[in-house]
Amino acid sequence: MTSQDEHNREMQRRVEKRLREMENMMNIEETPFYETQKHQPEKNQKSWMRKVILGAKLFGLLVVTIVAVRVATFIAGFVIFGALAFLVYKLFLESKFKNIK
User: TM segments (predicted)?
Assistant: First the structure.
């Protein structure tokens, strides 16, 4: 029986030794440490370039808006003129054309 106990103890020692080795290996591999850096403002060249791009976008939006308003005004004028012409025809001219026939 002693031999069985000795065998069990030896196995337990080996397991504990292996666990310690594995634990030491885990502690060796540390995660990389990244230092934080203070935010650096952008260079003046990039800053004015962004402002120029923003200005160009706003100018483009202004041009598109003006064109859309002009087109809408033209279409609204055309519709109003057509409605007035139809109204004049119905009120004044339709009865004259019916009498001619």
Answer: 52-69, 75-93
